[in-house]
Amino acid sequence: MEPAIRVNQLSKSYASGFKALQDIDLTIESGEIFALLGPNGAGKTTLISIICGLVNPTQGQVQVAGHDIVTEYRAARSKIGLVPQELTNEAFETVWATVSFSRGLFGCPPDPDHIERVLRSLTLWDKRNNKLITLSGGMKRRVLIAKALAHEPQILFLDEPTAGVDVELRREMWQVVRQLRETGVTVILTTHYIEEAEEMADRIGVIHRGEIVLVEDKHRLMRQLGRKQLSLHLPSPLQRIPPSLNGHQLELTEDGHELIYTYDVADASADECGGIATLLGELRDAGIHFTDLNTRQSSLEDIFVSLVRERQ
Ligand SMILES: Nc1ncnc2c1ncn2[C@@H]1O[C@H](COP(=O)(O)OP(=O)(O)OP(=O)(O)O)[C@@H](O)[C@H]1O
């Protein structure tokens, strides 16, 4: 199957001479949820704007569902729905009118059945005759998605879909996006909420200073780069780690009450369980007692922070 997006050696220098993107290669498969992560100013918006035909590339090629974004602009653009962060000022339009109008902007003939399907899938059908101004924040966000889906795009870009919304609404949005994927739509989202990427994405791309520094299946990423920590609470504080325990990656907290053992999630299978058993045996032999223990696995956020820090 044709990939949803194919980006080849893409670079962008703004008129100021600033190089916002550098030799980007990226393939986004049809039907996946792809999260693009990156710190402020990394180049996410520039990349998306080029793919959507809003900003001209300096170098390189982009294909959307097989269509070149420059030589086949219209075909490429028609495949894409873009959900911006903010509602524009159509406060006094009805839901039905504003969504139908969006379809017209792409030169598509009216199709009330399609608009009805979109509104029903986003539970907006009962609100179709409401003016936007009367809708809740969650409903307004759904209207943005409905507008972006009005011309039947195969690919949906969500720019910070849950920026500044409360936890409940965020979970509701995640549900909406998952349902969209079930209908075969490819979803590309940018987010600052790493929890969001962790929750939803099939694959994750990290962009930093205009370069793609990593593209990986989410589960594989968390297995490969994730770390586990075992913390042992010591009732009697230790002054220092005894040399007999030097073979393990151990740290002692300042107050001497917590001994922290760090190991890779990728090794956390039989071997490392053996490692923990050995460690506990050696602690006993060294006369070190603990009253409590707990484990913690690094989140995508920890992985992201350490990736970006490595490149500072
Ligand atoms: N029109 C422009 N002219 C000059 N520089 C620009 C222009 N637009 C963006 N930039 C610069 O390009 C870099 C990338 O910006 P971009 O908006 O793509 O980042 P981003 O990853 O989307 O950031 P954020 O998360 O803050 O939205 C930034 O340093 C920005 O200042």
Please explain how this structure is put together.
The chain is an alpha/beta fold and 312 residues long. The protein has two domains: 218 residues, 3-Layer(aba) Sandwich (Rossmann fold), CATH 3.40.50; 72 residues, Alpha-Beta Plaits. It has ten helices and 14 strands. Strand 12 and strand 13 form a beta hairpin. The mean pLDDT is 87. The structure holds adenosine-5'-triphosphate. The site of adenosine-5'-triphosphate has 12 residues, from helix 1.
Bound molecules: adenosine-5'-triphosphate
* Low-confidence blocks of residues: none
SSE pattern:
EEEHEEHEHHHEHEHEEHEEEHEH
| Strand order in the largest sheet | 6-7-8-3-9-10
Based on the coordinates given, report the CATH architecture of the largest domain: 3-Layer(aba) Sandwich
General form: elongated
Q: What is the domain total for the residues?
A: 2
| Rg, nearest Å | 25 Å
Mean of residue pLDDT values: 87
Number of DSSP helical runs: 10
Strand residue percentage: 25-35%
End-to-end Cα distance, whole Å, is 38 Å
Question: What is the CATH topology of the largest domain?
Answer: Rossmann fold
Number of strands: 14
Q: What's the CATH first level of the largest domain?
A: Alpha Beta
CATH 4th-level superfamily of the largest domain: P-loop containing nucleotide triphosphate hydrolases
Class inferred from helices and paired strands: alpha/beta
Keywords: ATP-binding, Nucleotide-binding, Transport
InterPro entries: AAA+_ATPase, ABC_transporter-like_ATP-bd, ABC_transporter-like_CS, ABC_transporter_ATP-binding, P-loop_NTPase
Organism: Aidingimonas halophila
Pfam family, one: ABC_tran
